[in-house]
Amino acid sequence: MKTILGKVVVNMIEYAPPVGVDVACMNKLDSPYAPPIGIDLLCKNVVETTYDQLSEDNVRIFKDRLLDMTGCILGGAIVPEDQFLAEVLCRWGGIEEAPLFARRGRLPMPSAVMLNSITARANDFGNMFFHVHGDRIASHCGETLIPMGLTLADVYQTNGAEFIANNVAAEDLTARILYTLPMRWPTDMLMVSSAAAALASRYYKLDADKTKVALTYAACNATDPANSYYDYSQEFKYHNGASAQMGIMACELAKGGWDGWADPYFGHWGLVTRQVKDGKPLPELYEKAFEGLGQVWYTEESFKRGPGGIPTTAAAKCGAAVRKKIIEARGRLDPDKICRVRVFRSSNMRFNYYANPFHLRNHTNALFSYQFAACCALLHGAVRVDLVQTPAILNDPYLISLAESSTMEVFECEPGKSMMKVIVELADGQSFEDIEDYGGSMHDYPTKEFIEEKFWAQFNAYGKMRRSVGEKIVELASKLETLPDMREYTELLTLK
Question: What is the pLDDT of residues 212-231, one digit of tens each?
């Protein structure tokens, strides 16, 4: 195999020497057990990436995502279940080092990045998906990296251009490693701790070797919290915060002189190797992952249309469309006249945990339910962050009753498509229905108007900042690369 990685690729999962082999052989590149150089190239790229190397699209997309994620931070700050964690971290205290966004005060860096990242993920409304070689690769790293980057940029007084480059470099490493995995989901959180370590290494000014050490410790703590979607636990967002915290600790260890693995990802027990059947990464994916390294940078490019899991967007669209049809036909929607709501998923849909019977448990339960999304949009026209907060749901007993009494069914649709359908039956026997593609327009790049409207909806839901502050946030996000000090932006996100 002739690649930029050389012949060592062939032996990329065999470099752990068997019993009787001198460990010293691992340092010889001509040894059959020599570690691959791929991780070294990735770390070198993390360290050496500069703003001037990035494309116009890299910068434009990142600025759009920053505004989008800033809105998610503000909207996430109103989740009541997370106030306990904020109180715990503040009680533990420590040096007033780093800012808390949408809150008051400062905390030690590990606590601040943890809380800020959890806040950004709280409504599951952030960016997702790398687009690499035509593949869509699920990721939730931006919900850690952007609030974490803002926190670090504040402490280190970083300029806007460097802030962009730091984040893009970390995301590119994440995208390329995820691309080597044959499965495209559920690995959406697998690399977040590594991404966090890569980002922090830029601010810690670690060289490539120490960056690899930091990635070692981040990889040791990598998990994927897909089970939290099935169980409706808060772990789905905790992972973002824990990853940010681990990224800081990993860099502290590397800076302090701890050593690490030769290859934390593709080695014999590496993070990627353990995820692949029989422990054998596919050489063709591994090779393609390195194409364009140092010339092309991958970042998340998809924007969510509603809070909660992506598939619930289709259920919400169905509910909203049925509401519109009823109003057009009858002049108004009378909730008392709703006799039955039937929610359908096509038989080929993979995300069946969203189809679990809805019984209100918590905020998370509402975020990951087809039934709740359909009924919420039917009654209110959309699923908004203010509508999925636990107090708002509890104050709307009719919504709870309607969602819990709705049925979840399966139907057949055109091969190759995944669809949602909602049928609403009224007391007089009349019925209305709508059908939507489960992915909706998730992967269509949104308009500037959509991004700003999404920001303002969450800004207004937060309700603790003057509109002039929101207008300044929008302005600075649009010219981010020109800012001499990111504190001009981050100070807008803190309460005085």
Answer: 999 999 988 776 656 666 66
What residue segments make up the domains of the chain, in order of their start? 6-36, 39-304+451-493, 312-437
Q: Which amino acid, 92?
A: W
Find the helix or strand (DSSP H, E) in which 435 lies.
strand 431-437
Superfamily of domain 39-304+451-493 in the CATH hierarchy = 2-methylcitrate dehydratase PrpD (1.10.4100.10)
Q: Is the pTM of this model over 0.85?
A: yes
C-alpha of 232 from chain center: 17
Residue 103 Rama label (left phi>0; alpha psi -120 to 50; beta): beta
Helix 160-179, helix 192-203: angle, nearest 10: 150
b/e map 166-183, b = 16+ CB within 10 Å: bbbbbbbbbbbbbbbbee
Residue 295's CB is within 10 A of a number of other CB atoms, namely: 9
Predicted local confidence at residue 16, as pLDDT: 42
Amino acid, res. 354: Y
Q: Which fold has domain 312-437?
A: 60s Ribosomal Protein L30; Chain: A; (3.30.1330)
3-state DSSP helix/strand/coil % of the chain, to nearest 5:
55, 10, 35
